[in-house]
Write a structure and sequence with these properties.
The complex is a heterodimer of chains A (about 775) and B (about 450).
Chain A (H helix, E strand, L loop, with lengths): L2 H12 L10 H17 L4 H13 L6 H16 L5 H11 L3 E3 L6 H12 L5 E5 L2 H17 L4 E3 L6 H9 L2 E5 H11 L15 E5 L1 H7 L4 E5 L9 H9 L7 E4 L4 E4 L1 H11 L9 H15 L7 E4 L2 E4 L17 H8 L10 E6 H5 L4 E6 L6 H8 L3 E3 L9 E2 L3 E3 L2 H17 L4 E5 L2 H13 L5 E3 L7 H6 L7 E5 L18 H7 L2 E5 L6 H8 L9 E8 L3 H6 L14 E2 L2 H48 L2 H9 L1 H10 L2 H33 L10 H30 L18 E2 L13 H15 L7
Parallel strand pairs in A: 1-12, 1-13, 2-4, 2-5, 3-4, 5-12, 14-20, 15-20, 16-18, 16-19, 17-18, 19-20
Antiparallel strand pairs in A: 6-11, 6-22, 7-8, 9-10, 15-21
Chain B lengths: L1 H9 L1 H22 L7 H13 L7 H6 L3 H4 L8 H16 L1 H8 L2 H32 L23 H29 L4 H24 L1 H23 L1 E5 L1 E2 L15 E5 L6 H19 L7 H11 L4 H22 L2 H10 L2 E2 L7 H37 L2 H4 L5 H31 L1
Antiparallel strand pairs in B: 1-3, 2-4
Helix pairs in contact in B: 1-18, 2-9, 6-7, 6-8, 7-8, 8-9, 9-10, 10-11, 10-18, 11-18, 12-13, 12-14, 14-16, 15-16, 16-18
The chains are: A alpha/beta (about 775), B mainly alpha (about 450).
Chain lengths: ~775, ~450
């Protein structure tokens, strides 16, 4: 590193700016060596190349970057007819060193990951985490010839894979899989009653594509495995109907940035009159819960924004990606409430059998690395949560995309007019335009307006994600107008002039792809992802965001009072204070998300320790005769009695089955208890106590009791159970589909610190000029 | 508690944190006794002796208490942690008033860093201000309430070798730099040590005076010493007990349909402390009572004005019933005042309702707020009485025993004991909870 860059790195560190990166120089120094080795390798036959790869894999020193990169490059050259650029090899080296690499869109991340995956293969199984099932399959098949030349096997998993297929895919050296599939497989493995039913083997290395999205945005999402349904006493349909008759701001209030809703006194009276009960009576907790859930479904979850209805099913939309979230459900009866609201058949609720957050799941791996186009802005978070460092790889060709400053409008209406005018003007020249919108509903509305203006456009949203890759690939064609939700098409390149680049020069002459954002997203990274769709590999391109002061982002997170600036006749605003306020609103939104993540992690960290300890005990019960030994010791009479009737093997099997059943059900209860505890823990602040400490204080003894409780229940059941023969089976809880996500209170301290409360109270006191009650 | 410390020392990570905190405390104490350049150490000691043997001269009691006696010694850390606390309080207040600051705070890490930066600048600014003021007071002799004649024992003597203005400037710079150091120590303790840096340093200052005062009492009368120690143990035990006392109001959340086991309301509750207000009412009351003293001191020593004499005799004098009763009443008032401002039953009820929570058997909204208000008013009364009694304990002793000067410095009354126990409990609790987590991780390895 030169003196100047060293100084800059030092200065950044001193100022604690995000974006301290690792030094690429030692890796750059290896590039000539790789080239030399590549020249030698190119002399070899395919079989000899395989032999060379095998030799590397068997060596004690698998971290030989030169050999790994040279082999990868040679294999890619032969298999794909594509010689990886130096920057791709640099990226592969960063991955091999265990960091997160930032590479712009279109720089060939898939191949980079493949070279690194092959390098890691010697150290155990490698999982490449992709954004969705489609990409898992596509990337695995695409890279298969490369891996075959390196004598490695490759597999992929998607939602419809059978357990056998999964087992086979995970048995391969390298497995391509989405994070939810890999996570759910771990959850299912954790409740098997026969070790042969497991699909995962050990966890080695994970290489994560779109690392920021998975490591940060999705990290807090709990993956949940749910079991048998409890009978619902109150029909959610009847309550949904009553609730749908309520009026917002009159019968109920939506507060806290649209995160929560509650009945007003008038609304409560109305509901109680219709149901003819007192909701707050001691025996009506279930009805109250049902009303709360129905209200949540009615007021906070909007069709075509939060979910869509497809094939008579409610499907959730991922808030960060704008596409259908696979296998995701709302927890704790909310799903059923939404189904009741939409009057479709209930898919059933479920007790939570096992849960793990994406972050806790990923930390199962011995080594984590990943790549994305936007790693630097989350560098600090990656360090905080995963101890990962970021390296920025310069693009192969310099980026010449022009990013215009935001165009700000006073009202949403004026903004929408400006957006349409801009699209129409651009489209008139034949220039391809890609529009990013915030929701499915908005994308459809925009498409309709454009159609009125005579502009044909393709809509890309959660409703047709199977065609997504094809549509995105054509977004750069001459005359194309594509309207999409925010993050669609991650992982698919937009080539100018269409996927075959037949009009490339013509589109280049027009200035390349023009990207429009109809509003700023909750995070700057997501904006940057959208911008990054243009300007691929040195292509020309431009990006422009339109913002209105009525946008949700501004209204929720902007300063109070919001500076308004001065608007011209079209409602356009040019004002420094307004620009600052918009940037600030986005930073506040990012902070809120970070706080949610941090809090989720803090509280889940302990729960994850519980999960691991419990898993260890369960494993003991499953693979050893620990259950039999326990019962022989604690219930010797019954044990001997049964041993006389049945064979030793059968008694042990029965003991194991009972113990496992209770291990699982007690664990499930523990999870429910912990959610309950977590729910109200923020109230402890009122007694000047730290909620997290208090959580630990209660959770730790609860877990200690749990392990003893499992043993006790097992013994009790064993003593009381009628066992009629060697074929005895317990009434097993049937497993239903997995479910997920429930938002908690944003911060664990909604009241503010004692000092803040005091000052806020004093200011209120002086401003109102009135006395305070109580003195 | 001792076993907690023992096992804390067996956990390397935690041991390092504790040792680090102790190191910071040690450095802080060294700076607090290190005389600033230009100050005559000998003369300062003489003046201190005069002040301590003087009648009821309570010069800058609170400030001196918070600086651990460093203030009157004009040491490098004379200003102690006070400018930092003041700056933090001012910034907190401004955040409520100025929208732009409020927005910065909401922006999280980057915004918070900026606010921290402002706090630091303000601390240094206040440091310069206070240092100048105290240096000026010291020169004029007002620092010791005029009890110490500056022509006889000049604390900042003009030696003639160095121009006086240079000495004074150097003194101000030294004290301001000292303030910066103390602030830094505080932040370091918060970041890498145990407990909250500011609280730990205040704790240190107060605790540092104990041995000194113990010796004074010991030299005065051996029996009194044992009585005082015995009394101290009783008072501390009483404070520890009451500081932890709370009333738990059960709360239930009706948000989950499935998998909920009926709870007896044991784990989800609002803890209402008996002493919900902490030490703040005492500080307010004593600050307010300090005003008459300040006012009369302007009138000079030998006034004949009857009102002033009456005030001096009854309000300023700490062993007189008028003073004691006033002090007690003020504490009661401020306790209710503080609790009513920080705990707004309506707001709490609204928050619970927002997230689907309710007190079993009580309807949400207004009835809940009324219920909380009722409980709060009832629990605040013993809390206020307790604060008042602990605070007037030393004054009562002076009255009963009869103005023995050793007892006047009784270190286990009022503010001191409340702060010491409060910070102590908080820090031990933090160590305990870290320990709990560590031990736990130990299971897995």
């Amino acid at each position: 590193m030169g003196l100047v860059s060293k100084f800059n790195a030092w200065r950044r560190k001193l100022q604690e700016q995000p974006g301290t990166t690792i030094d690429l120089e030692p890796m750059q120094a290896l590039l000539p060596l790789i080239e030399e080795r590549e020249a030698e390798l190119s002399e070899l036959t395919d079989d000899e190349l395989r032999a060379a790869a095998t030799a590397l894999h068997q060596r004690d020193d698998p971290q030989d970057f030169v050999e790994a990169c040279a082999l990868g490059r040679e294999a890619a050259k032969r298999a794909l007819d594509e010689r990886p650029y130096d920057v791709q090899l640099l990226g592969a080296q960063v991955l091999l060193a265990g960091h997160v690499v930032e590479m712009a869109t279109g720089e060939g991340k898939t191949l980079t990951a493949a070279i690194a995956a092959a390098g890691y293969a010697a150290m155990g199984p490698v999982h490449v985490i992709t954004v969705n099932d489609y990409l898992a399959r596509r990337d695995a098949e695409w890279m298969r010839p490369v891996y075959e030349l390196l004598d490695l096997t490759v597999g992929w998993v998607n939602e419809s894979s059978t357990p056998e297929e999964r087992r086979e895919a995970y048995a391969a050296d390298i497995t391509y899989v989405s994070v939810s599939e890999a996570g759910f497989d771990l959850l299912r493995d954790s409740i098997v009653t026969d070790t042969a039913d497991r699909v995962h083997r050990e966890f080695g290395t994970v290489i994560i594509d779109e690392a920021d999205s998975i490591l940060i945005d999705e990290a807090k999402v709990p993956l949940v495995l749910a079991g048998s349904t409890i009978d619902e006493k109150d029909s959610p349909v009847a309550i949904a109907e009553i609730v749908s008759g309520l009026r917002r701001d009159h019968d109920y209030d939506v507060v806290d940035d649209g995160r929560t809703v509650h009945l007003s006194t008038a609304g409560l009276a109305k509901v109680e009159a219709l149901l003819e009960i007192d909701l707050y009576a001691a025996d009506q907790v279930d009805s109250l819960t049902a009303v709360n859930l129905a209200l949540h479904a009615e007021a906070l979850l909007v069709r075509d924004v939060d979910y869509i209805i497809r094939d008579e099913k409610v499907e959730l939309i991922d808030e960060f990606r704008g596409r259908v979230a696979q296998r995701r459900r709302w927890p704790d009866g909310l799903q059923a409430a939404v189904e009741a609201k939409e009057k479709i058949r209930s898919s059933g609720g479920g007790t939570v059998l096992q849960t793990i957050t994406v972050q806790a799941f990923l930390t199962q791996y011995k080594k984590i690395c990943g790549m994305t186009g936007t790693a630097l802005p989350v560098g600090d978070q990656l360090r905080e949560f995963y101890k990962l460092e970021v390296a920025v790889i310069p693009p192969h060709l310099p980026n010449v995309r022009k990013d215009w400053p935001d165009r700000v409008y006073a009202s949403a209406e004026e903004r929408d007019i400006a957006v349409v005018n801009e699209i129409v003007a651009m489209h008139a020249t034949g220039r391809p335009v890609l529009v990013g919108t915030l929701s499915v509903a908005e994308s459809e509305q925009l498409a309709a307006t454009l159609a009125e203006e005579g502009v044909e456009c393709v809509v890309l949203n959660a409703k047709n994600d199977e065609k997504e890759a094809g549509i995105v690939a054509e977004a750069g064609s001459f005359n194309a107008v594509t309207v999409s939700t925010q993050m669609t098409g991650r992982g698919v390149d937009i080539r100018l002039g269409g996927s075959d680049e037949k009009d490339r020069e013509r589109v280049e002459g027009l200035g390349g792809l023009f990207v429009i954002g109809t509003a700023r997203n909750d995070s700057r990274r997501i904006d940057d992802q959208l911008r990054g769709r243009a300007g691929r590999q040195g292509d020309p391109g431009e990006s422009m965001f339109f913002v209105s002061l009525e946008d949700q982002l501004i209204e929720r997170y902007g300063p109070e009072p919001m500076p308004m600036g001065r608007a011209d006749a079209d409602g356009a605003i040019e004002d420094e204070d307004v620009r600052w306020a918009i940037g600030s609103a986005q930073r506040v939104a990012e902070t809120v998300n970070l706080e949610i993540h941090r809090n989720t992690w803090r509280y889940n960290y302990l729960l994850d320790q519980h999960r691991q300890l419990h898993a260890k005990r369960r494993e003991e019960l499953l693979v050893t005769d620990a259950a039999g030994e326990l019962l022989a010791e604690r219930a010797p009479d019954r044990y001997n009695e049964l041993s006389e009737e049945l064979s030793e093997e059968d008694v042990l099997r029965i003991a194991r089955t009972i113990a496992l059943f209770h291990a699982d059900s007690a664990w499930s209860e523990h999870l429910a208890d912990m959610s309950e505890l977590r729910e109200g823990i923020h109230l402890r602040v009122l007694g000047a106590q730290d909620p997290l400490d208090e959580f630990h204080r209660e959770a730790i003894p609860a877990f200690r009791g749990l392990l003893a409780e499992i043993d006790n229940r097992t013994v009790k059941e064993f003593e009381e159970l009628e066992i009629d023969g060697p074929d005895w089976e317990p009434a097993d809880a049937g497993l239903v589909r997995p479910s997920a996500t429930w938002t908690y209170v944003v911060s664990d301290n909604p009241f503010g610190s004692e000092m803040e409360r005091f000052f806020a109270g004093m200011v209120k006191l002086f401003r109102s000029g009135k006395g305070v009650k109580g003195n | 508690m001792l076993s907690a410390f023992a096992s804390a020392f067996r956990t390397p990570d935690l041991r390092n944190k504790i040792l680090f905190t102790l190191l910071m405390i040690a450095l802080y104490r060294v700076g607090a006794t290190l005389p600033s350049p230009g100050v005559s150490f000998g003369n300062v000691q003489k003046c201190l002796d005069i002040v301590e043997s003087g009648a009821d001269n309570q010069v800058f009691t609170l400030l001196n208490l918070f600086s651990g006696g460093a203030l009157l010694q004009l040491s490098v850390f004379a200003l102690g942690i006070m400018p930092y606390i003041t700056a933090s309080i001012i910034l907190q207040l401004l955040t409520v008033v100025i929208p732009r600051l409020e927005q910065l705070r909401k922006e999280g890490q980057s915004g918070q860093a900026k606010i921290t930066q402002y706090t630091r600048y303000l601390t240094l600014g206040l440091g310069v201000l206070q240092a100048s003021a105290f240096v000026a007071l010291a020169r004029s002799g007002q620092l010791f309430g005029g009890a110490c004649d500056q022509t006889q024992f000049p604390v900042i003597p003009d030696t003639g070798k160095i121009p006086l203005w240079l000495t004074l400037t150097a003194l101000v710079i030294t004290m301001t730099a000292g303030t910066g150091m103390v602030m830094w120590f505080g932040e370091l303790v918060t970041d890498r040590g145990v407990g909250n840096g500011m609280s730990v340093l205040i704790f240190t200052s107060i605790a540092a005076r104990l041995p000194n005062e113990g010796i004074t009492i010991w030299q005065d009368d051996k029996t009194t010493f044992f009585v005082v120690v015995g009394l101290a143990v009783v008072v501390i035990a009483f404070v520890v007990f009451l500081e932890q006392a709370q009333r738990r109001i059960p709360v239930q959340y009706a948000k989950r349909m499935i998998g909920r086991r009926m709870y007896g309301g044991t784990s989800t509750y609002i803890p209402l402390k008996v002493n919900q207000a902490g030490v703040i009412p005492v500080i307010f009351a004593s600050s307010l009572l300090y005003l008459p003293q300040l006012a009369t001191s302007f009138a000079g020593q030998d006034t004949t004005n009857r009102t002033i004499l009456w005030i001096n005799r009854n309000i300023v004098a700490q062993d007189k019933p008028a003073h004691i009763i006033l002090y007690f009443m003020l504490i009661i008032f401020f306790t209710y005042f503080y609790v009513s401002i920080t705990f707004n039953p309506t707001e709490v009820a609204d928050n619970m309702r927002k997230y689907g929570g309710f007190v079993p058997g009580i309807r949400p909204g207004k009835p809940t707020a009324e219920y909380l208000d009722f409980i709060l008013s009832r629990i605040t009364l013993p809390g206020a009485l307790y604060l008042g009694i602990i605070s007037i304990l030393p004054n009562l002793l002076i009255g009963i025993v009869g103005g023995g000067q050793a007892l006047q410095n009784f270190p286990f009354g009022g503010t001191a004991v409340l702060i010491i126990v409060g910070v102590g409990l908080e820090t031990v609790k933090q160590i305990e909870s870290q320990l709990m987590q560590r031990n736990y991780e130990g299971f897995l390895r």
